[in-house]
Design brief:
single chain; mainly alpha; 13 helices; 73% helix; 0% strand; globular; transmembrane; Inositol phosphorylceramide synthase
């Protein structure tokens, strides 16, 4: 059985996934994509500002964990969620329970999910698809900015921690999950499901990018991630539903804003060496 021992194992796994997905999506060794990305950061202030904004929102999400820990008055809406949907997650988990599937879903939840965001940034920057790169940045920002207030003031616990009939399957292949990975995701940060919303946003944008492999890969990954959040006993059906809506809205907003900014750039002759007119979105 595949065992994740630490965040070092997680980092190595994510790196390998990103490496091979970029290689297949661009048909070039990822070193070219990395070089192109670094060049963009140092030659385009607009590109650099968007990347800095992306890093900043991830930092804010990390800060939310500390702020939430200092809040003594938090409303717990978990009983309300349970009364609304009952034992859906418990039934789902018991229906598919299998040791091999547990390992696969843990791999998907922990490693595939962040790989979608990282690979998207490198693929679009390498392909000079600036609209999609900016759309990804905006979509991720919107996902976090909308979700964080809910995490602070609308506390919903993970299913396994609330229902004794739901197992914490994550510990089967990642025994140090609570000490190693937990600091990146609070136990009560359930509604909406960011695993759902961000994977939906990445798939939505990838389907618009006209990169067939990347569109199919992100779509299949999105479906598998949604399956994993139920199977592992982490999210409620309500969390997933809210995440689905958030992911689509964030992606659509990201596209609209990126299109508008590209038009403004062309009108004012910014980034003259880039022909935005050739970058189309369906």
């Amino acid at each position: 059985m595949f065992i994740i021992h630490s965040m070092t194992d997680v980092t190595i796994g994510i790196t390998l996934i990103v490496f091979f997905t970029i290689w297949i999506a661009t048909r070039k060794l990822p070193f070219y994509a990395a070089g192109s990305f670094v060049q963009e950061v140092f030659t385009s202030r607009k590109f650099a500002f968007h990347f800095i904004g992306l890093v900043a929102i991830l930092f804010i999400n990390k800060l939310e964990q500390k702020v939430a820990g200092t809040m003594h008055f938090k409303n717990d809406f978990t009983p309300s969620i349970y009364s609304l949907e009952g034992d859906f997650v418990a039934g789902f988990q018991h229906l598919f329970m299998n040791n091999a599937l547990s390992t696969i879903t843990i791999f998907i939840y922990v490693m595939i999910f962040p790989s979608l965001m990282i690979a998207s940034v490198f693929i679009y920057s390498y392909q000079k698809n600036y609209k999609m790169f900016y759309a990804v940045c905006y979509a991720i920002m919107f996902n976090y900015l909308i979700a964080i207030p809910f995490y602070l003031f609308f506390s919903v616990s993970e299913v396994w921690s609330f229902r004794p009939d739901v197992q914490a399957l994550m510990l089967h292949a990642f025994p140090t999950f609570e000490t190693a990975y937990r600091p990146t995701s609070g136990l009560t940060n359930c509604f909406p499901s960011l695993h759902t919303s961000i994977s939906v946003s990445m798939a939505f944008l990838a389907m618009k990018s006209k990169n067939k492999f990347w569109g199919r890969f992100t779509l299949i990954s999105c479906v598998c991630i949604i399956f994993s959040i139920f199977y592992l006993g982490i999210h409620w059906l309500t969390d997933m539903s809210a995440g689905l809506v958030l992911g689509i809205v964030a992606a659509r907003l990201g596209i609209r804003i990126s299109e508008g900014r590209a038009w403004i750039s062309s009108v004012f002759n910014l980034n003259k060496n880039r022909d935005f007119s050739k970058q189309t979105l369906d």
